[in-house]
Task: inverse folding
């Protein structure tokens, strides 16, 4: 389409529109359903034919649109406000700048951004109305015409102490804007889309509270980055560019895996881009890259400054990789930044992605925790933190106490000449003060059982360290909570500290404790028996089961197996423990062998009545065969380094216990009762999957996201399933079984 400046020029004879093919026309597969209302954003890697752009031709758009004014320009795009005569409304039109000679890659990237944004339907993402080509083959798309100003412009006014903006955009309102941005990015991540250029200047804040995330030109599907196998991107040609220019860095990715015909674009804005973007390794970019940029945005909201300002692009990228920027409180000491919000920003901006929030949803939850007056994960809260926030949430009681103290001081000062009267007034006031102090202590005691319940939940989920911390918090809030001391004693038994266990459970530690006579007898018996060894381990297991303390066995084995041990004595002891805990197993099949220094290879197969696998808790297992066992609790496999797991013929009916096993490469769940396999996407390294012999299997479309999957075994009746067909087209080897 002609640029808007030329729309009113007279034209001579019109030339025939050039025929150009769209390299990414099949970006979204229509036959893959993500939910009842929306499609998965998914690109078929191997299309038999590339479609052309004929379907986008729109005649002469000048007859439909008339230009009002230019709104913005940057990168390859220019944004104009135009009148849409069909709908009688003003819309924004994006097109390639008139000064730029557009290449095929530019046009493909332009259309890619338009289509991807159009498929992200969220209240905080700008809606796309139309995508088309003019009579000369030039692409354009129209979208909602936004009013208001960018978040970057708002922060600039706050930085300049504009009184009107300081009054209107309080920290509470800025946090509300930030959360709307987070919600939009969290939604995009559920579609597999990463934005990659989040910054305040890409956030539009409307006059009526509406917030929109703009400029999805660098956004891409997570799978596109995973497929790239070329050299790291180099920014050296821009080393000397001044950072004040705010230039967005971009590079095309060529030579990507699986013979992709379209080239992806990567980049970011110095000062906001993450360390992995600065280092130029596309395969390291993940959803947490956006988490970093959201952290940088929160940093600027709190301090009114970009985390890294000034200097050249080279200097900025080097400081980004090193994590070299000031803490928020030091950067803007006059703004009195809450420590909790500063901690959230710093956690989101951790140099190592593993130190950031695991998802945008987790970041949102921590901001909500701050807003609701509770401790955040980012703070690593102590007892003092919890206590301080508890007081803040009960401001009325604390205010009454403070007021009472003030009254007492005033009365004592003014009543020096009437001692008897003052003494009576003071005693009354002290009584009231004591009542208020009792109220705070009572409130803390009411909270203590909640932490005890949390500890029990964490213990059942085998989160042992977290359970210990919750128990200590419970006892700190109420040192006389009898049930908590009983749980403390049971923990000591499971950790083989029998002397302290007996001291606590017998009540000789100075606090009331809930009675548990069997636990007292067992602690005393083991205390008198002396140090425990692998040879005596089966006896302890038998005693704990007999005394009704079997719930503590996972903690016992976890602490044993996480410490160094002699496998020649430990594994026979574990085998005997398995026999004790599974009395219906006639002859236990249990074989083990080391796998270098990395872990163990275990075979528990062909034990149909084997259900309790507590003795495996804490072991570094690389390969496990649990085929033809009962219903083992896979949550007991607490360590995440397993690469092969065989569960064929078990009576299991779900997989959610495996969510922590991100390193799995081979999974066999054939002949089980598992129907739902939608969480296979949680195993990104999965290469071989056996689903044969499962009745009424639900073939999840999300299998397509397992980009490393090479071999899939299913029953013959699923050969026509659309997802199976899509995997086969991608090159996955499909093995069909008769059952």
Result:
């Amino acid at each position: 389409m002609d640029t808007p400046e030329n729309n009113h020029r007279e034209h001579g004879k019109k030339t025939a529109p050039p025929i150009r093919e769209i390299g990414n026309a099949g970006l979204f597969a229509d036959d893959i359903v993500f939910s009842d209302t929306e499609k998965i954003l998914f690109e078929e890697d191997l299309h038999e034919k590339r479609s052309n752009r004929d379907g986008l031709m729109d005649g002469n758009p000048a007859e439909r649109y008339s230009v009002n004014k230019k709104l913005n320009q940057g990168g390859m795009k220019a944004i104009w406000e135009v009148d849409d005569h069909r709908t009688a409304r003003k819309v924004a039109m994006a097109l390639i700048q008139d000064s730029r000679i557009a290449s095929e890659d530019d046009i493909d990237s332009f259309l890619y951004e338009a289509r991807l944004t159009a498929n992200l339907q969220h209240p905080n993402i700008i809606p796309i109305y139309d995508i088309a080509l003019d009579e000369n083959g030039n692409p354009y798309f129209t979208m909602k015409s936004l009013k208001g100003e960018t978040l970057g412009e708002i922060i600039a006014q706050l930085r300049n102490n504009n009184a009107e903006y300081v009054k209107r955009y309080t920290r509470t309102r800025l946090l509300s804007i930030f959360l709307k941005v987070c919600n939009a990015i969290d939604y995009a991540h559920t579609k597999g889309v990463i934005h990659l250029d989040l910054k305040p200047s890409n956030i539009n804040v409307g006059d009526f509270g509406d917030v929109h995330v703009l400029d999805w030109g660098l956004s891409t599907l997570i799978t596109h980055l995973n497929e790239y196998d070329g050299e790291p991107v180099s920014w050296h040609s821009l080393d000397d560019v001044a950072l004040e220019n705010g230039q967005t860095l971009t590079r095309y990715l060529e030579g990507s895996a699986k013979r992709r015909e379209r080239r992806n674009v990567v980049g970011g804005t110095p000062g906001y881009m993450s360390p992995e973007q600065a280092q130029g390794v596309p395969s390291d970019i993940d959803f947490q890259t956006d988490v970093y940029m959201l952290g940088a945005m929160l940093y600027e909201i709190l301090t009114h400054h970009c985390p890294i300002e000034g200097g050249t692009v080279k200097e900025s990228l080097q400081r980004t990789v090193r994590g070299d920027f000031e803490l928020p409180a030091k950067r803007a000491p006059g703004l009195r930044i809450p420590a909790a919000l500063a901690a959230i920003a710093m956690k989101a901006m951790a140099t190592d992605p593993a130190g950031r929030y695991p998802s945008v949803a987790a970041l949102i939850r921590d901001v909500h925790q701050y807003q609701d007056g509770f401790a955040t994960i980012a703070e690593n809260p102590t007892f003092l933190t919890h206590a301080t926030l508890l007081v803040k949430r009960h401001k009325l009681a604390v205010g009454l106490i403070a007021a009472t103290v003030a009254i007492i001081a005033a009365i004592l000062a003014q009543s020096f000449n009437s001692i008897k009267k003052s003494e009576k007034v003071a005693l009354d006031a002290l009584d009231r003060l004591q009542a208020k102090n009792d109220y705070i202590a009572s409130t803390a005691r009411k909270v203590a059982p909640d932490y005890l319940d949390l500890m029990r939940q964490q213990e059942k989920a085998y989160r042992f360290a977290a359970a210990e911390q919750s128990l200590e918090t419970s006892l700190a809030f109420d040192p006389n909570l009898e049930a908590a001391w009983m749980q403390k004693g049971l923990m000591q038994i499971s950790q083989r500290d029998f002397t302290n266990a007996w001291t606590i459970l017998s009540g000789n530690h100075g606090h009331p404790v809930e009675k548990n006579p069997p636990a007292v007898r067992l602690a005393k018996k083991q205390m008198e028996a002396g140090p425990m060894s692998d040879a005596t381990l089966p006896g302890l297991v038998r005693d704990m089961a007999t005394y009704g303390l079997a719930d503590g066995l996972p903690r016992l084995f976890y602490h044993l197996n996480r410490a160094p041990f002699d496998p020649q004595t430990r594994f026979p002891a574990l085998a005997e423990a398995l026999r004790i805990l599974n009395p219906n197993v006639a002859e236990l099949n249990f074989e083990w062998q080391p796998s270098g220094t990395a872990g163990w290879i275990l075979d528990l197969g062909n034990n149909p009545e084997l259900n309790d696998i507590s003795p495996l808790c804490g072991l570094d297992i690389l390969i496990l065969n649990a085929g033809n066992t009962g219903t083992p609790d896979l949550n007991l496999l607490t360590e995440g380094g397993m690469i092969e797991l065989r569960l064929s013929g078990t009576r299991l009916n779900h997989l959610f216990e495996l969510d922590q096993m991100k390193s799995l490469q081979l999974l066999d769940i054939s002949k089980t009762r598992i129907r739902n396999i939608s969480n296979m996407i949680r195993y990104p390294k999965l290469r071989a999957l056996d689903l044969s012999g499962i009745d009424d299997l639900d073939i999840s479309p999300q299998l397509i996201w397992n980009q490393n999957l090479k071999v899939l075994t299913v029953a013959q009746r699923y050969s026509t399933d659309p997802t199976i067909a899509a995997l086969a087209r991608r090159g996955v080897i499909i093995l069909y079984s008769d059952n």
User: Anything to note?
Assistant: Residues 149-378 form a domain with the Transferase(Phosphotransferase); domain 1 fold (CATH 1.10.510.10). Residues 1-52, 254-263 have pLDDT under 50 and may be disordered. The two ends are 58 Å apart (CA to CA).
